[in-house]
Specification:
heterodimer, A: 316 residues, alpha/beta, 13 helices, 11 strands, globular, B: 5-stranded parallel beta sheet, 15% strand
Chain lengths: 316, 880
């Protein structure tokens, strides 16, 4: 159970990251590293770059002297991953790192909790993770902060996320919310679920679940929510931009920062990996024009952040 | 076809502009059309995409009401005339309007959810499932708007085209006008120039080239005017000269015409003179010749007789000369017409030979006649003219041959079915003609040589006349000659073949000995005898024949000698002994009294003169074959017959006396009357067998008299008439008037005799041999026997009115009765036949006369003896 640390700096501007990076590289070359670490990226996309840069930039002088981080793309990987520790970014990098039953311990990040669970289910390796998704309580906290009068919360979930639903229902009950759930096995089930859940609900809680929310279903679900004047509490910034009312999320840079802290902790005891955890750093995004059209008066972003930080989300 | 230049220019430039405008406007219009279509299709696509998005949500949620609401709103779009939506299974969910219009587009689009970034990557999530197919929409797009735009485009194009046409047309018209006007002016000026307005000029205007053309035209017109003036002057000069020559020519022409008229008048005068002279000369000559002949016959003093003979010969030559001149004149005027009458060629040749033989024999020449077997005997043509030619040529041959022979050969050159071409060759052994004379020989008034002319008298017209006659017979005449060796004159002539019974062969099966020293004559005689059917054994000399085995076997022996005067005593004795034998016949070239005297002294019977006429030969030989009848002498042979009655009509007293003397000589009874009126009167009394009518008579002319005689009633109209005139030109008039024959003055004794023979057969019979009398005696009973049948047939045809059959029957009867010498019947038959031919009204009377004649004949035949009947017939009394 991690406590969010208030007053953590926000992500640096890109130029600043580059300067830091150059300085660290020279320092690292000055003293021979004692631990070899492989950072395996699932793709070339911006989130991975952002993560890698943030990790490099967030290492302290000590860690820099003792760690050598090799960054590699999963597509360019020819031999089994080597080193004392493999950090994987994304689901594919994790799956690739786990292909061999023996190998160095793996620290997965940039991956939702449900995906991580499914990936390591049959692997004998030592693994740990820094999830991209928030602890479920943090979403419900946001919901309570934005819609203080909401009681009935619609929730659509695929069978893969059944565990999440159980955890969520538990927390919701504690917060005085009634979670109306619909199981979605394929996108075809969506219209019926919408017809059933949307009328009479006060909000829709949308959590990362590709079966339910993907690029092809997103628009229609949002449209349906408008038709029922149903505010959507979502899990990403782009969701808010598409039409959700508010979202709480963690950026890859924030993950990189927290990863640097985790490595610093691992150096003290390299034989033990820290336990899997949700990110401590997060951001809140609100669609104010939408709120206005819905006739809601929302508190300021800082107030909302403050409320989420002050009320712990849940136990891990 | 000939458009004006302005038109051509206007049309071509207008067409060019129009074409360009058409191409451009067409191109851009097409482009715009394509753009409009493209736009429409793009807009349709856009609309379909937009509407697909629009309906994707109601499809996603399955909200039918929302769907219909959307569709209704979509239908409000001006382009959309229909829309329908179907689910992925194809079931119709909703429809508005007509999504598949006939006159419009139809666009189908699949409806899918619109992708919207949900930030999966940032979450490191799995790839999302593929997008769901929500359904399909079909849009019906209206074409109305694009059509309207197209129409507007078309209007615009048409407007532009019209504008181009106007501008182009105006431009072309202006161009054509500017170019064509000066050219038209030029053309008009050129036309004026061609009409002769040489002063016409043009004002050079228009484009540079045309103006230059105008200036050149002016220069040309100037030159033309100049040349024209020059030419005009030349023409005037030439015309003046021409007129002068024309005037001279006209004067010449007038002079020539006058000369021609004078010549014509002279020629006519000559012709008239000749005709008059002939008449004037002939009449006295007639008297001279006739009386000389009578004197000659009456005189016994040899010296006197000699003088008379000389007078006669001279007169005859003079007459011949006159005849020749007349004939030539006639021929030159083209007045000679050939006749086409039936004749026997052999008779013509025999006649000519008989006439000329004495001349030849006088000069001791052998005259022989050779006729090819292929030559047909019976012909149609003009025997008189043929005789004339032959006379001339043979006469010439004898004349120009001092010694030797004259041989006449007749051959067939071309023998058609009907037309035949005969060739006559007269060869002599005379003095010949050289090349120099050849050219002139057929020209009038020329003879072979002046010296010869003096030696052999003659008019020199004979050959010219002969040539003309031959040309008229369609033939040619020419000669081959070697001076000193002899001459062969030959000519060809076209004749017509005539059907005739095959000649009789009375000597069939008999063998005949022929002795003839002259080879050609021997051949000729052999042919003649063979024609009569005899088998001939020819010998050259008498002793040869004597020695031959056939001598005794042959019943007939022909012994020919040359001139009796030239025979020696031995030969004469031999002939005398042979002549007494009945089977021997002596032939001789006896020309003069001297010959006969020689023969008579040696007791040789009168010979037959060579060349022997075929008929005479036949009769003599046939006679010799019947010794029982030949035994008696000629005095006993025939009973004297009453002569025929001849009526002579002649006004000239001298000629009347001559006729009287002639008829006495011939032993004929003649009544001589001096006017035509008297003759007509006498004829009506009947019993006249022949009329001799002089043409030139005081009062009624001879021709008029003939016409009246022919118009007489009864049988008198059929009396034969012989016309006599000194004017030989009047022959055709006489024959046309109805005369049966023509006799030219002076009267030729022989010609008169032959005419009388022809028309008074019974008179002739007095001189005939006993043979023909016997023939007649045999024929008459046969005829009388057949007469009733004749009568019956005639009666039948008469009552049936069958004129053709009647005439055919009459023709047969006429032939038979002429042969049997029944003149009355003959006359009746002839008169009826003539009347039927004319179709006259007197046929009834004539038929009655014929009936009577036949009845009388038949009645008498029953009571009289044959001889009596024959005699009676001869004196057949007139019916009237």
């Amino acid at each position: 159970m991690n406590t969010p640390r208030p007053g953590r700096p926000r992500p640096l501007p890109t130029g600043g990251w580059l300067v830091l990076c150059l300085i660290f590289c020279q320092l690292a070359q000055a003293q021979a590293p004692r631990h070899e670490i492989l950072l395996l990226l699932s793709g070339d996309g911006r989130p991975y770059q952002e993560l890698a840069l943030a990790l490099e930039a967030s290492l302290g002088p000590t860690e820099r002297q003792r760690l050598t981080i090799h960054t590699q793309h999963v597509k360019r990987l020819t031999a089994p991953p080597q080193g004392e520790l493999v950090i994987t970014a994304g689901l594919r990098a994790l799956q690739r790192a786990l292909e061999h039953p023996d190998g160095p311990p793996v620290l997965a990040t940039l991956i939702p909790r449900s995906s991580y669970r499914r990936a390591i289910e049959s692997s004998p390796r030592r693994t740990s993770a820094l999830y991209i998704d928030q602890p479920p309580g943090r979403y419900l906290q946001l919901l309570k902060a934005v819609l203080p009068h909401a009681q009935r919360v619609a929730f659509m979930v695929s069978p893969q996320n059944a565990a999440l639903e159980r955890r969520l229902r538990h927390i919701a009950a504690r917060l005085g919310l009634r979670l109306e759930t619909a199981r979605i096995e394929s996108p075809k089930d969506l219209p019926r679920a919408i017809r059933r859940l949307f009328p009479g609900s006060d909000a829709l809680l949308a959590l990362a679940d590709p079966t339910v929310y993907n690029r092809y279903t997103l628009k229609n679900i949002l449209l349906a929510s408008y038709r029922h004047s149903l505010p959507v509490i979502a899990y990403s910034r782009s969701f808010v931009r598409a039409g959700a009312l508010a979202a709480v999320y963690t950026t890859p840079a924030q993950l990189g920062l927290q990863l640097a802290e985790l490595l610093s902790q691992w150096l003290t005891d390299p034989d033990h990996l820290p336990a899997p955890r949700h990110p401590d750093y997060f951001l809140v995004e609100v669609n104010r024009p939408l709120a206005q059209s819905l006739g809601l008066s929302l508190p300021h972003d800082a107030v909302l952040m403050d409320r989420l930080i002050r009320f712990p989300a849940e136990a891990p | 076809m000939n458009r004006r230049l302005a038109q051509i220019l206007a049309l071509s430039s207008g067409a060019l502009i129009l074409l360009t405008a058409l191409i451009l406007v067409g191109y851009f219009t097409l482009q715009d059309y394509r753009a409009i279509r493209q736009q429409l299709s793009e807009r349709s696509d856009d609309l379909a995409t937009a509407f697909a998005q629009l309906v994707s949500f109601p499809l996603f949620t399955g909200d039918r009401e929302l769907l219909r609401h959307h569709l209704r709103r979509i239908l409000d779009h001006p382009l959309v005339i229909g829309i329908e939506v179907r689910d992925p299974g194809g079931r119709l969910l909703a429809r508005e309007g007509d999504p598949q219009p006939l006159n419009g587009l139809s666009v189908v689009r699949k409806v899918r959810a619109e992708p919207l970034d949900a930030g999966e990557e940032a979450l490191g999530l799995d790839a999302p499932p593929p997008p769901t197919h929500l359904g399909t929409i079909r849009l019906g797009i209206s074409l109305a708007e694009s059509q309207a735009r197209k129409n507007a485009l078309l209007r615009q194009s048409a407007l532009i085209l019209l504008l181009c046409l106007l501008i182009g047309g105006g431009l072309a018209w202006w161009l054509g006008h500017r170019l064509a006007r000066p050219i038209r002016q030029l053309s008009e000026a050129a036309e004026a120039l061609s009409r002769g307005e040489l002063q016409r000029r043009v004002t050079p205007s228009g484009p540079l080239e045309v103006a230059s053309l105008g200036r050149d035209f002016n220069a040309m017109a100037e030159a033309l005017a100049h040349a024209h003036e020059e030419m005009q002057r030349e023409v005037e000069r030439a015309t003046a000269a021409l007129q002068r020559s024309l005037r001279r020519l006209e004067e010449k022409n007038r002079e020539l015409e006058a000369a021609r008229r004078q010549a014509q008048a002279a020629s006519d005068a000559k012709g008239r003179f000749l005709a008059n002279m002939s008449h004037e000369i002939r009449t006295p000559m007639n008297a001279i010749v006739g009386f000389t002949r009578l004197l000659y016959k009456a005189s016994t003093d040899p010296a006197q007789r000699h003088h008379l003979l000389t007078i006669q010969h001279s007169a005859e030559s003079l007459l011949t000369l006159i005849d020749d001149i007349l004939e030539l004149a006639q021929m030159e005027k083209g007045q000679v017409h050939l006749r086409a009458v039936d004749f026997e060629l052999r008779e013509v040749l025999d006649d000519v030979c008989a006439l000329l033989a004495p001349l030849a024999h006088e000069k001791q020449l052998e005259l022989a006649l050779l006729i090819d077997r292929s030559v047909p005997e019976a012909l149609i043509g003009d025997p008189c003219r043929l005789k004339q030619i032959l006379n001339n040529l043979i006469g010439n041959a004898i004349k120009y041959t001092p010694s030797g022979e004259v041989i006449i050969r007749v051959g067939l050159v071309e023998g058609g079915e009907r037309d035949v071409m005969l060739e006559f060759r007269i060869s002599d052994s005379g003095i010949g003609i050289d090349e120099r004379q050849r050219r002139r020989i057929f020209q009038a008034f020329s003879q072979g040589d002046e010296a010869v002319t003096r030696h052999y008298e003659g008019s020199g017209l004979g050959l010219t006349i002969a040539r003309s006659l031959v040309a008229r017979m369609g033939g040619e005449i020419d000669f081959e000659s070697q001076p000193g060796q002899g001459t062969t004159f030959w000519f060809t002539a076209w004749m017509q073949r005539r059907d005739s019974p095959p000649p009789a062969t009375p000597l069939h099966g008999h063998e005949v000995i022929l002795v003839e020293p002259h080879p050609v004559s021997r051949l000729a005689l052999t042919q003649d005898l063979e024609r009569l059917g005899a088998r001939v054994h020819p010998f050259e000399r008498l002793d040869e024949a004597h020695g031959d085995t056939h001598w005794e076997r042959s019943l007939l022996r022909l012994i020919a000698v040359g001139s009796p005067r030239r025979l020696n005593k031995e030969s004469l004795r031999q002939l005398a002994s042979l002549g007494r034998s009945s089977g021997n016949l002596i032939l001789a070239n006896s020309a003069s009294l001297a010959d006969y005297q020689v023969l008579a002294q040696h007791g040789i019977p009168a010979p037959v003169n060579k060349p022997v006429p075929q008929r005479l030969l036949s009769e003599r030989l046939e006679h010799m074959l019947r010794p029982h009848t030949a035994a008696g002498n000629g005095a006993e042979a025939a009973p004297p017959l009453a002569p025929g009655r001849v009526l002579v009509c002649e006004d000239n007293a001298v000629n009347r006396a001559l006729y009287l003397a002639l008829f006495q000589e011939l032993g004929l009874e003649a009544e001589i009357l001096d006017s035509a009126e008297q003759t007509l009167e006498r004829l009506q009394r009947g019993d006249v067998d022949l009329v001799i009518m002089d043409v030139h008579m005081p009062g009624m002319s001879g021709l008029e008299a003939i016409r009246r005689i022919r118009a007489l009633p009864g049988s008198a109209a059929g009396t034969p008439i012989v016309c006599v005139s000194a004017d030989v030109f009047s022959q055709s008039d006489c024959l046309a008037a109805g005369a049966d024959a023509f006799l030219a003055k002076p009267i030729d004794e022989q010609a008169l005799e032959s005419l009388l023979e022809q028309h008074l057969g019974r008179w002739h019979r007095r001189r005939e041999t006993a043979l023909s009398q016997r023939m007649q005696q045999r024929l008459l009973p046969l005829f009388l026997e057949a007469l009733p049948q004749h009568r019956e047939r005639i009666e039948r045809s008469w009552s049936a009115g069958d004129i053709a059959a009647l005439r055919a029957e009459l023709h047969k009867l006429a032939g038979a009765c002429a042969y049997c010498h029944l003149p009355r019947l003959c006359q009746a038959v002839r008169a009826l036949s003539r009347s039927l031919k004319r179709g006259g009204p007197e046929a009834e009377t004539l038929m009655a006369e014929l009936r009577q004649a036949m009845t009388e004949l038949l009645e008498r035949s029953g009571t009289e003896t044959l001889t009596d009947r024959s005699r009676k017939n001869a004196a057949d009394p007139p019916a009237g």
